[in-house]
C-alpha cells in the first residue's frame, strides 16, 4: 500500500472514530435528559401524595409502586425530612415504613453507587431504628469518604454519634482529612461527649491541627468542664496549639480565663498575642487596656491592627478609662513604639474622640 493510501486510510479511521464518539456523547446526553425528565415526572406524582399525608390525609400512601424506586424515595424523603417535625414527621415515617421504604434505603446504602449511598444516608435520618443505626455505623466505618461523612452526619442528627476517639482515629489512621465539614461534625458530636473530648486532648499522637479542632469543639460546647483542659493547652510548647486554645477560650467565654489571656498578650509568638487580643475584644475584657495598648506597638502588623480594632471596640464601654491610658500610652508599652505602630494608636485615638 502506498503512503498516500495509508494516509487516507488513517484519516478515514480518525474521522469515523470522531463521528462515533460524538454520536455516543450526544446519545448519552439525550438519555440522561430523558431519564431526568422521567424522574421529575415520577417525583411530581409522589411528592403531593406525601404532602397530603403529612397534612392529615388518612389511609395508606398510594405511590403506585414507585416506593420500590429506592433512589427516588431517597431524594424525596431527604427533602421532606428537614421540613416536618412532631406528629407529622412520625405519621410520614410510619406510612413509609409500612411500604418498606426504610428497608429499601438501607439496601441502597449498602449496594448503591457512591452518590446514591450518600442520598440514602441522608434520607435515613427520618427512620430512627436499631437497623438504621447499624447500617449507618457500617457505612461510617467502611465506605468512601463522602458516604462516611454523610453517615456520620446522620448518626449525629439521630443522636447516635460515634465516640470522639473513633472520629479522631478515622482522621489520624484513616484517609479522612481535617476539613471544615469534619470540624463541624466534631463540634456537634462533642456537645454530648464533653468527657470524651477532654480525654482526647490528653493524647500525645494528635497532630496540632486536630488538637485545635478538638479544642474548638470544646469551646463551642459552652460546658464548664472544658475550661481546665483549655487552660492547660495555653501552656503547650506548640504555638499553634496555644493560639487555638485562646480562640477556644474566647468561644467558651468563661469568666476565669483572665490569667491565661494576660499571659498570652505577652507571649513570644505573634499568633498567640493575636488570638489573645481577639479574645479581649470578643469578651470585652476592659481590665486589659494596658496590655492591649502595648500590643498596639507590636512588631507584627496583624497584632497592631487587631489591637487598634480592640481599642475602638472597648472605647464604647469605658471611654474615660481608655482616654487615661491613651494619654500615657508610652509608659504602658512594653517596647518603644515603632513607626508601624502609629496607625493603630491613631486609630484608637480617633475612636475616643480625638485624644492624642
Per-chain topology:
Blueprint: H1 3-54, H2 70-81, H3 86-98, H4 101-111, H5 114-123, H6 130-142, H7 145-157, H8 164-172, H9 180-190, H10 194-201, H11 208-221, H12 227-233, H13 239-252, H14 258-264, H15 270-283, H16 289-295, H17 301-315, H18 319-327, H19 329-332, H20 342-351
Helix pairs in contact: 2-4, 2-5, 4-5, 4-6, 5-7, 6-7, 7-9, 9-11, 10-11, 11-13, 12-13, 13-15, 15-17, 16-17, 17-20
Structure report:
- The chain has 356 residues and is an all-alpha fold.
- Helix content is 71%, strand content 0%.
- It has helices at residues 3-54, 70-81, 86-98, 101-111, 114-123, 130-142, 145-157, 164-172, 180-190, 194-201, 208-221, 227-233, 239-252, 258-264, 270-283, 289-295, 301-315, 319-327, 329-332, 342-351.
- The protein starts with a helix and ends in a 5-residue tail after the last helix.
- The model is unreliable at 330-335 and 337-341 (pLDDT under 50).
The gross shape turns out to be extended
Stretches where pLDDT falls below 50 for ≥5 residues? 330-335, 337-341
Characterize the main sheet. Answer: none
Q: How helical, in percent, are the residues? A: over 70%
Report the mean per-residue pLDDT as an integer. 82
The fraction of residues assigned to DSSP E strands is: under 5%
* H-E string: HHHHHHHHHHHHHHHHHHHH
> What is the structural class?
mainly alpha
Number of strands: 0
Number of helices: 20
Oligomer: single chain
Radius of gyration: 30 Å
Distance between the termini: 95 Å
